[in-house]
Amino acid sequence: MKRILPYLRPYVPRMSLGFAIKFIGTLLDLMIPWMLSTIIDEVIPTRSMQRVLLWGGMMILCSIAVFAFNVIPNRMASKVASDVTEEIRRDLYHKATSLSCAQMDQITIPSVISRLTTDTYNLHRMIGMMQRLGVRAPILLTGGLIVTMTMEPKLGAILLALMPVMILTIWLILKKGIPMYTETQKKTDRMVQIVRESVTGIRIIKALSKTDYESDRFENTSRILSEQEQAASITMATTNPLMNLYLNSGLVLVILLGAYMVYSGTTQIGRIIAFQSYFTIILNAVISISRLFIIYSKGAASAGRIAEMLDLPEKLQALPHESKKDVSADEFLAFDDVSFSYLGQKNNLSHIRFSLKEGESLGIIGATGSGKSTIIHLLLRLYDVTSGQIRIGGTDIRQIPPDALHRMFGIVFQSDTLFADTVAENIRFGRGLTPEQIQTAAQLAQADEFISNKENQYQFGLSSHGGNLSGGQRQRLLIARALAGNAPILVFDDASSALDYKTDAALRQAIRTRKQKVTSIIIAQRISSIMHSDHILVLDDGQCIGYGTHEELMKTCHVYQEIAQTQLNSGSNAAETCRKEALA
User: Fold this and answer.
1) Does 23 fall in a domain?
2) Residue 579: pLDDT above 50?
């Protein structure tokens, strides 16, 4: 909760005003039973209709004031709660976008979604209810006890004797409830993960007729969450019946003792009626406080999860700038003995070395899981190297501010995303590009032809993830987005796997012709996509087993020879195209 307090401080004046109004309204609420007692015991016996109307009018005015002085601060409380939650949600979102990939792997995306939605909602309810009931209920309880002790000390002593029992009960329930709600939120994370996976993979689920399997998986997760929520709710719900039991038992004693006192003439009936009214007020106040504790339990559990994420350190901050390392004047991008491990145990990359001049190209090929995409993750500093150094222009990338580093790249990831927007906006991607720049990028990416055939052309609306395009069309749009920024480094992570050989060859030819000063890194499974690169890196189990040109590797690298022979000697048209390109 301490982490949330700084968000509340700017609203202290507004909250204080709301508390003051609520305080006055609560005091007026406590005066109404006293007025009723006065009317019954002192006004009615005088048989003065004028006094009855006067006191009755005062009760009506007090009731109206109580209504107004509760509605106004409640609206103020709702506004404060929504404003504070908006700020927390905004900071959570910015924090999520600034986390390193390692930190995101630790928290998980479903948990981030849950914290941005369910947890902030629980916090919103807690902040609102603490302002609404946090003043009114304790004042009604304390004020009711004081007034009853003043009116009839003997009857008030019954209420006072119940207080320690009620406080102990609430404390025990609260102690058990908060951990249960924390566990509930973890179960919610799991359900969000199942839903996210099912929605993302809906096509493959239907294609493989696994709808029933996924439904069972969801139902099982939902059942576990439901059972956890029920257990937590039942635990916290015991507060109300126990408070009712304690207070109604006390009310029975009050009525019995009050009847005896009226019969013996030691008190008046108006006081007993007022006492019962105060008893009802105290009962409602205790129930409100117990409800407040339930909401606090959920809010405190959620606040802890939110604080856990907000307090994560910035792991990928730029290091202090040092002088550039003495390197060759021709070196533009270099991996210098780089090793990396995702889990800190076995290296996923080991002792990777290569360097590129400005405008050169590097092709990376290898089996699935050999570490090809990991090289890109390290180059973009989505993860930090375990050992070694990555340099751009002679500067360690850890000394380059993340925003400046990322602006150096035009990239297409292996699993990239198109958004539910127009073709033009998906290429522009918030970078202020002109229509001419967008069209030029689309032409380079061999996408202009199919875009021109669409209705509204560049204003054609895409569905989420580009579902209304073919795989090859999606890849060409993603490549156009990467090319449109005119970044000095292009990275294609298996970006042409859905393209036919002719389009792939035309794309590479256009990039070579129009982007001669751009350094490019191409990860591919097809020899034809990388064979014209200035350098080719062959990976196997995170280690470099071959580095050189296509011709050099065909002589020195057995694995590369096997890949080439498999692809180039298949007798297909694709293989013939590869041979022609190799000869070219």
Assistant:
1) yes
2) no
Closest C-alpha to 242, from 148, 144, 159, 167: 167
What is d(CA 533, CA 412) in angstroms, rounded to the nearest whole number? 18
pLDDT > 90 in the chain, percent: 0
Could you give the CA distance from residue 232 to residue 248 in angstroms, rounded to a whole number?
26
Return the HEC string of 276-330.
HHHHHHHHHHHHHHHHHHHHHHHHHHHHHHHHHHHCCCCCCCCCCCCCCCCCCCC
Strands 349-356 and 333-340 turn out to be antiparallel
- CATH number of the CATH domain containing 183: 1.20.1560.10
**How far is Cα 349 from Cα 369, in angstroms, rounded to an integer?**
11
- What one-letter code names the amino acid at 106? Q
Give CA–CA dist 478/104, Å, rounded: 24
SS3 assignment for 530-541: HCCCCEEEEEEC
Confidence (pTM): 0.67
* Structure tokens belonging to residue 325: 């390392």
Taking only the tens place, the pLDDT of each residue in 375-385 is 888 898 888 88
DSSP structure string for 137-160: HHHHHHHHHHHHHHH-HHHHHHHH
Count of alpha carbons within 13 angstroms of residue 295, beta-carbon side? 21
d(CA 394, CA 327): 7
What is the identity of the amino acid at 108? T
Residue 290 lies in a domain: yes
Which pLDDT belongs to residue 41? Answer: 73
With vertex at residue 203, the alpha carbon angle to CA 201 and CA 205, rounded to the nearest 5 degrees, is: 70
* 327 vs 348: CA distance, rounded Å: 27
Q: With respect to residue 338, please indicate whether it lies within any of the assigned structural domains.
A: no
What is the secondary structure of 326-371 as a DSSP string?
A: ---TT--EEEEEEEE-SSSSS-SEEEEEEEE-TT-EEEEEESTTSS
d(CA 135, CA 130): 8
H helix or E strand, kind and range, residue 529: helix 527-530
- Residue whose entry in the numeric block shows the structure tokens 């025990």: 172
Check: CB of residue 537 under 8 Å from CB of residue 544: yes
Closest CA to 143 of 33, 295, 269, 267: 33
Helix axes 501-514 and 435-444, enclosed angle (nearest 10): 130
- Please indicate, yes or no, if residue 356 is contained in any of the structural domains: no
Q: Which residues contact 302 (CB under 8 A, 6 or more apart)?
A: 115, 118, 119, 120, 122, 123, 126, 181, 185
Token pair, residue 515, equals 């982007």
Q: Please name every residue paired with 536 in a beta bridge, in sequence order, or none if there are none.
A: 363, 548
Alpha-helical segments (H) within 48-100: 49-98
Kindly calculate the radius of gyration of the chain based on its CA atoms and give it in whole angstroms.
36
What's the number of domains the chain is made of? 1
Please give the Cα distance from 110 to 198 (Å, whole number).
13
d(CA 145, CA 285): 11
Distance, in Å, from the CA atom of 214 to the CA atom of 573, rounded to the nearest integer, reads 41
Note down the domain range covering 177.
5-310
